[in-house]
Amino acid sequence: MEQILEVCSCKSINKAAQKLYISQSALSTSINSAEEELGRKILERSHNGITVTKFGEEFVEASRKILEIYDALLKKESDAGVPQLRVSCQYLLYARAIFTAICAEHAGSSTDFRYVEKTRDLVCQDLLDKVSELGLITTPTTSRNNVTRTLENAGLDYRIISTSDSCCMVGPKNPLYHNQEDFIMLRQLAPYPLLHYEKAPWIWHKGTFDDELSYFPHAGSLSISDSGSFYTFLIDTSSFFIGIYNKHAYEQIKFYNNIRVLQIADASFPYDTLCIWRKGSTMTEIAREYMRRIYFSIGRTPEAFSL
């Protein structure tokens, strides 16, 4: 309903897709699915643009009322302090561990828990789709201006909660795993494939992450979509992964078995870790507690997190 209302407002599927931060094809598929389910046409498409059918006008009017009621219910739930914690996160092991600890503490309660691990782009989309109230992503500091501009334009607020040097992660089948020192040089990465998470279609400012992979020498690449594949490929291949490793966080929880973290002595490519949420949204107390523990885990005072 929200998507169709946006199309009607813009009178263009292309413009609506840009505002909704989804692809034009995904939006068209969504509209077609709604029309198939209802058995009626909502929109007529022609070379002159989009027009709303008679039934479509009734659908739009009803949709506005339904969404107003839905938003009021969400606000009422938030105002009533109904316990819930809904987080979308990039693949950060310490963030997952903190979430499970909070779940264990609330065992038997009526708290609504949801935790999903996704790529950076899909985490942002979850926030826009109101699937989650909090998101955690990592982005290169070289892209900070473009990242913050895109988030602001999309209606998302943010806090940069930490900045960490990039590091190299390898498994036993990569010769670097047996390196005598705890650091390597960039040139030592050149013979091995680069393992990285695939990108989903999200409308970042053009060129935002162009240098993210090209900065690190590599021979070929492996694209994956989930943390299970991340672990399997690092263990079973000679690939390497570029990420961040907060030493303070992993003094409290165990890192992945048989994966070695090596600092890159001549690299100057740090990453920001950002907490993101929808502008104007009300964060539940349990969500605040989650973020306070995130801050404590990475070595910052929990009081630093304030909204």
What does this protein look like?
This protein has 307 residues and is of the alpha/beta class. The protein is 38% helix and 22% strand. The chain contains ten helices and 13 strands. The strands form three sheets. The protein has a six-stranded mixed β-sheet, with helices on one face. A five-stranded mixed β-sheet has the order 4-3-5-13-6, sandwiched between helices. Helix 2 crosses helix 3 and helix 5 packs across helix 10. It is globular, with a radius of gyration of 22 Å. The mean pLDDT is 88.
**Morphology:** globular
Q: Are there runs of 5+ residues with pLDDT below 50, and where?
A: none
Radius of gyration over C-alpha positions, nearest whole angstrom: 22 Å
- What count of helical segments does DSSP give? 10
Strand order of the largest sheet: 8-12-7-11-9-10
Q: Please give the largest β-sheet.
A: 6 strands, mixed
What share of the residues lie within helices?
Answer: 25-40%
The total beta strand count reads 13
Determine the mean pLDDT.
88
What gap, in angstroms, lies between the N and C termini?
31 Å
- The fraction of residues in strands falls at 15-25%
The helix/strand order is HHHEEHEHEHEHEEEEHEHEEEH
- Label the structural class: alpha/beta
